[in-house]
Amino acid sequence: MTGAGQGIGRALALGMADEGAAVIIAELNANNAREVEREIQRREGEALAVQTDVSDEASVTAMMARCLERFGKVDVLVNNAGIFPNAPVEAMDESEWDRVIGTNLVGTFLCSRAVVPTLIAQRSGRIISMASGRALEGAKNGSHYAASKGGILGFTRALSLELAPFGITVNALCPGITDTAQPRANLPPGARLEDVGANIPLGRIGEVEDLVGPTLFLASDAGRFVTGQTVVVNGGAIRW
Question: Taking the domain 7-233, which CATH number applies?
Answer without folding.
Answer: 3.40.50.720
